[in-house]
Amino acid sequence: MNRYTILVYTENFIGILNRITIIFTRRGINIDALTASESRLDGIHKITIEATVTEEQIVQLTKQIEKVVDVIKAYYFKDDEVVYQEIALYKVPTENLDPGLEKVIRQFNAHIIAAEKEFVVIEFTGHKEDTQALLEILKPFNLLEFSRSGRVAIAKPKFSVQEYLNNQTYNH
Amino acid sequence: MIRGADIVVRSLIAENAEYIFGYPGGAIMPVYDALYDYSDQIKHVLTRHEQGAIHAAQGYARVSGNAGVVLVTSGPGATNLITGLADALIDSTPLVCITGQVAAHLLGSDAFQETDVVGLSMPGTKWNIQVRRVADIAPAIAKAFHIAKTGRPGPVLVDITKNAQVEFGEFNYVHCESVRSYKPYVRIDEQAVIDAASLINSAQRPYVLFGQGVVLANAEAELKAFLDKTGIPAASTLLGSGALSQCHPSYVGKLGMHGNYAPNLLTNQCDVLIAVGMRFDDRVTGDLKRYAKQAKVIHLELDPSEIDKNVKTTVALQGDCKASLSLLTKAVKANEHPEWMSRFRELENEEKKAVIANDLHGTHGGLHMGEVIHLINQFKEQDAVLVTDVGQHQMIAWRYFDYKTTRTQVTSGGLGTMGFALPAALGAQLHNYNRQVICVVGDGGIQMTIQELGTIMQTKAPVKVVLLNNNYLGMVRQWQQLFFDKRYSFTELENPDFIKIAEAYSFRARKVTERDDLESAVAEMLLHQGPYFLEVVVEKEDNVFPMIATGCSVEEVRLS
Ligand SMILES: Cc1ncc(C[n+]2csc(CCOP(=O)(O)OP(=O)(O)O)c2C)c(N)n1
Ligand SMILES: [Mg+2]
């Protein structure tokens, strides 16, 4: 089993996310994380899916995703083939604020992005291992809430969805 | 400006739809109202159940190659389509299903007969869409036909809210030629053709397996040309039957759990396996870990997700097999394989002695299903269509029916849907009233859609229904006998008087219990002009052999 990132480029079509996720559900495969956003190309959506599966599974999953009519193209990558980040937010109470907190924030190069009377919100971006490490450290500070995004990723290998779209449809 | 409902009907007419199979109800009534004005341009068939409508559309699509069209109402009308959608998806049958939906402003409110049809049908369709505005109706239908028919065909569904049906809009129909996210065909990789040809040229024991992909690609002539030149033995899958005449010298029989002895056994002795338009279904491969491990595999397949899915290929020839087969035929050398072929013939003789002789030529005891099919072969027309349901009769009819021409095999292969045959036979018959359509069905399965006898009556489709009555859910009973210690748990049926039922539906009907009466009955049926219902009471506890039991390897195919 490996951790993979699948980048899916789709039309902006109602239900497309459902069509993609049922491919995983049907095979009993868990989606570790999923994010959807616009892509560089107008009107084309990009869905980033993280899953821990075998090589055989990732090949089949990617083909099945690409088979969806409104999917333009899907690619899969191993972790070392993508640049990726996840953002995490931590809510810590200000009451009895431990002076050690400042040190932790500096060490991690995290930021306080909101300060209210009762709590502060710390933002930290990195790989899951990093945001997880900060989570463990902040727990003793009476951490109130934690939230982490799915990964956003850019692939290192070159590929062009635009080029794929420009290719004429081949009719036999 | 015309009403959305008229746009629906005129779009279907613009797509040259010949038939609509359907059933009305509240949320689709505007379209039914519109239909009233177009009965000279498009025919509507009122089935007795929506499942009947979709199976009829499937039968029509399978013999015609056109997309079958289904029209039903929201809620229960739409949910009754689900079995047919799943069936058409797994058997790659082009369908365009139109469902009515509650008005757009009621969506999500649990309005009367509101169901999330798009959500429910998503895993059972190649594509689906909900249309909420009149302007979107025609483009959605155009796209639906394009997607249903191109590439690997499949069912699509267009859910149209009631407000869109009654609003007024412009109608100028534009056929859909392409969808930018969907590129169903690819250019055949020339290097792959060269690689495949060199494997084939140096093979000692090459072996071709062909499936329905050949029929869907209209590549029957290309398959024949390839086999004519190479002399390679070729076996058919369930849905591939008919793609090659069984008289062709390369033809060696059928694959799969109840296929022929030699084709299964010798799969594990070939050195190059050439799979054409087939998907290595588990009913064909048996235990994958012991399937054709010795062979190099060449896979000619349109759908990239089928390549390497079950069986790893040495050379993948992705693309339309009509194109790849003709390129391959040019690239291979003319050859023959008499010794290798004789292995098939030897084993065929073993099967004849051990199984076939008895199946086809009973002398005492109850009638065998095979005897009925054997007689049908003697009296049927060359291009007669065989429609079967699911069970023992399906396997026996398939095993013994003499397939001479293409698009003569209509059965529920991938899903194994009992109740498929009767409505599918109706659809197949409507495509051409003059072609013989023979519907072989079991006493269990016929009762799942028996109401469609009414549709046959109303359309006067001259379907020949052959009920092989063993008073059992025979296929399940066979498994109970072989694998569950003969514990016949809920497989015996108390059946009605089928002849009375058939006669109530205006069928000419006849029941045969004695061997001596069978021949004249089959002959009478096939000469009869209108619908005919022949019930044959067969041996209750016959089994279908050969058989590859679940979990076994193809080489463990047993003759008894
Ligand atoms: C809708 C559906 N339900 C259950 C089954 C499981 N099943 C497969 S064959 C079979 C028995 C069919 O009996 P019958 O129609 O009498 O045909 P026979 O095998 O006796 O020829 C059953 C129950 C099925 N294939 N489809
Ligand atoms: Mg039966």
Structure explained in plain terms:
The complex is a heterodimer of chains A (172) and B (560). Chain A has 172 residues and is an alpha+beta fold. Chain A is 29% helix and 39% strand. Chain A has 2 domains: 2-82 and 153-166, Alpha-Beta Plaits, CATH 3.30.70; 84-148, Alpha-Beta Plaits. The longest helix of chain A has 13 residues, at 55-67. Chain B is α/β, with parallel strands linked by helices and 560 residues long. Chain B has 3 domains: 2-169, Thiamin diphosphate (ThDP)-binding fold, Pyr/PP domains (Rossmann fold), CATH 3.40.50.970; 190-343, Rossmann fold, CATH 3.40.50; 366-537, Rossmann fold (3-Layer(aba) Sandwich), CATH 3.40.50. Helix content of chain B is 37%, strand content 17%. Chain B has a 6-stranded parallel β-sheet. In chain B, α3 crosses α18 (421-431), α11 (220-230) runs parallel beside α14 and α16 crosses α17. The mean pLDDT of chain B is 98. Chain A binds chain B through residues 10-11, 14-15, 18-19, 22, 26, 59-60, 63-64, 66-67, 69-72, 165, 167, 169-172, and chain B through 118-119, 122-123, 126-128, 130, 147, 178-183, 185-187, 303-305, 308-309, 319-320, 322-323. Bound molecules: thiamine diphosphate and magnesium ion. Chain A: One of its GO terms (molecular function) is acetolactate synthase activity.
